[in-house]
Design brief:
CATH class: Alpha Beta
Number of helices: 4
Strand order of the largest sheet: 1-2-4-6-7
CATH architecture: 3-Layer(aba) Sandwich
Distance between the termini: 29 Å
Largest sheet: 5 strands, mixed
Helix content: 25-40%
Shape: globular
CATH superfamily: SpoIIaa-like domains
Order of helices and strands: EEEHEEHEHEH
């Protein structure tokens, strides 16, 4: 299992990444989110990096920017919670600084702060 997503009762989308993340798994969770969002809705996204997360499977086409180009502006805010060792790679992976949405990383014991920041 590499990625799962669900919308919590507050409307925040929670993506959990575990094990080795494959591009096809990420594509599925992104499509699930977009399918549920209304045409004018924006998503707040909480990414939780599980303890067993070990990175991205390397032989896949991670430079595919289709989702970012077509739907990137529908994400209002991204909070990432996980081991600090993943911070720089996750910020780069999420396009922090390249998208309109602010992206902020929180250490794994700061989940409540991440929720508060997402509002």
């Amino acid at each position: 299992m590499g990625a799962t997503i669900q919308q919590d009762k507050s409307g925040i989308w929670v993506l959990r990444a575990s094990g080795a993340l494959r591009k096809e798994e990420l594509d599925v969770v992104q499509a699930d989110c977009i399918r549920v969002l209304g045409p004018h809705d924006d998503a707040k996204l909480l990414v939780i990096i599980e303890k067993d997360f070990c990175g991205w499977v390397g032989d896949e086409v991670w430079n595919d920017m289709t989702f970012f180009v077509e739907h990137g502006d529908r994400i209002a805010k991204i909070a990432i919670v996980g081991d600090p060792k993943w911070e720089s790679r996750m910020l780069m992976f999420t396009g922090a600084g390249l998208r309109r949405a602010p992206v902020k990383y929180f250490a794994e014991n700061h989940l409540a702060e991440a929720y508060a920041w997402l509002g």
